[in-house]
Write a structure and sequence with these properties.
By secondary structure, the chain is of the alpha+beta class. 53% of the residues lie in helices and 15% in strands. It has three domains: 113 residues, Acyl-CoA dehydrogenase/oxidase, N-terminal domain (Butyryl-Coa Dehydrogenase, subunit A, domain 1, Orthogonal Bundle); 109 residues, Butyryl-CoA Dehydrogenase, subunit A, domain 2 (Beta Barrel), CATH 2.40.110.10; 150 residues, Butyryl-CoA Dehydrogenase, subunit A, domain 3 (Up-down Bundle), CATH 1.20.140.10. It has a four-stranded mixed β-sheet. It has a four-stranded antiparallel β-sheet with strand order 2-3-7-6, with helices on one face. Strands 9-10 form a two-stranded antiparallel sheet. Bound molecules: flavin-adenine dinucleotide.
């Protein structure tokens, strides 16, 4: 594994940085305040190729990997976690269709998702089933060459904004995870309605809503993979998604650390800059160290994924560690900045609110510990 960015990665980092400085940073406060998703900026990200990084060139992708994708996500998240999460969420239907879709589905949807001609979402969680995702109740009843879907999805990012969703529904009722199937549904299908925009602690520029499905008539060609493979598909997608959440959390933590450091070298108390007090400089040193450690874990998970090697445990460790340190870093950044840290005149209180949700989405951090420990038990069992 190389610890230096190669030429392509350097160029990518420069170009996304420039994009973010011009198109994102100046507008973030307004988007968050108005709770408005910047769909036009998402479209510009697509037009500039930033949404198709790890997908094949024949479907308007860049033919690169997750090691490049996380560079882009981290840079976007430094300015806007809302936009970064929308990019990560758009990535779930992209990777599911790319990996499990048939040729017709790839040609129909992938190029448009990569250029943001359409945007996507992922609908798994339900009011009664979050962590226990294999128990979902949304039901798709097969009738000839159609499925009739009924149910409710909850906390769906970009619901009502995105045009297309990968929706997980039961197609049998035996209680097994093999009963679940992945479907492509689109916003305009008859019987789909969206709930009110949830009022959230952070990520206010993204819409989070319920999706109601009432006798939604979906053709059999919208099944992704095979009937009964949906849970496997969803879990594999979440493995990749965890790498993107880790990168987003690192971006938030970097931004908070930068802000606190700048403040600490200029703010004076007792006749000197506060950074000269160890009570301030040591937390800053911890932030720097932990952010770097989180980035290395995340890069390693991406490296393994790009080589087609197992990466599920590494992705869970990256997500767990990066999001936990983002919470710690952002909380300590507020502390370093004292009263100003708590004020909306500075962005660190927003970073703290945004870091929190990263510990919850794509499987809570308790669920990451379940995933990691199960891998550990499996690994040791092979040697017993
Ligand atoms: C802003 C936001 C955006 C989201 N976007 C999406 C989206 O786009 N698509 C989607 O499908 N979902 C989305 N979600 C849902 C998210 O994935 C779930 O909130 C998450 O999986 C947890 O489920 P839950 O909220 O039902 O909590 P629960 O599963 O009820 O968990 C409650 C608590 O119990 C703990 N817990 C549960 N089971 C165990 C266990 N076995 N061992 C130890 N602890 C356990 C959890 O860690 C948590 O602390 C989003 C959520 C939020 C907040």
């Amino acid at each position: 594994m190389d610890f230096m960015y190669n030429e392509v990665q350097e160029m990518l980092k420069d170009s996304i940085k420039r994009f973010v400085e011009k198109e994102v940073s100046p507008h973030v406060d307004e988007w968050e305040e108005r709770m408005e998703f910047p769909i036009e900026v998402m479209k510009k990200l697509g037009e500039n190729g930033f949404l198709g990084i790890p997908y094949p060139e024949e479907y308007n992708g860049q033919g690169l990997g997750y090691q490049e994708y996380i560079i882009v996500l981290e840079e976007i998240a430094r300015a806007s976690a809302s936009l970064a999460i929308a990019v990560a969420v758009n990535g779930l239907p992209q990777l599911i269709i790319d990996k499990f879709g048939n040729e017709e589905q790839k040609r129909k949807y992938l190029p448009k998702l990569s250029t943001a001609e359409i945007t996507g979402g992922f609908a798994l969680t339900e009011p009664d089933y979050g962590s226990d995702a294999k128990s979902i109740k949304t039901f798709a009843e097969r009738r000839g060459d159609r499925y009739i879907i009924n149910g409710t999805k909850r906390f769906i990012s970009q619901a009502g904004v995105a045009d297309l969703y990968i929706l997980l529904a039961r197609t049998q009722n035996t209680g097994s995870s093999h009963d679940i199937t992945a479907f492509i549904i689109t916003k305009d299908m008859k019987g789909i309605t969206f709930g009110k925009k949830e009022r959230k602690m952070g990520l206010n520029a993204t819409a989070t809503r319920e999706i109601y499905l009432e006798d939604v008539d979906v053709p059999v060609e919208n099944v992704v993979g095979k009937e009964g493979y949906g849970f496997k598909i969803a879990m594999m997608a979440l493995d990749s998604g965890r790498i993107t959440i880790a990168a987003t959390a690192i971006g938030i933590a970097e931004a908070a650390k930068d802000c606190a450091l700048r403040y600490a070298v200029t703010r004076r108390q007792f006749g000197k800059p506060i950074v000269e007090f160890q009570g301030v400089s040591f937390p800053l040193a911890d932030m720097e160290t932990k952010i770097n450690a989180a980035r290395l874990l995340t890069q390693r998970a991406a490296f393994l994924r790009d080589r087609g090697l197992p990466y599920s445990k590494e992705a869970a460790m990256a997500k767990l560690f990066a999001t936990d340190i983002a919470m710690e870093v952002t909380t300590n950044a507020v502390q370093v900045m004292g009263g100003n840290g708590y004020m909306k005149d500075y962005p660190v209180e927003r970073y703290m609110r945004e870091a929190k949700v990263m510990q919850i989405v794509e499987g809570t951090n308790q669920i990451q510990k379940l995933v990691i420990s199960r891998h550990m038990v499996r690994e040791i069992s092979r040697t017993l």
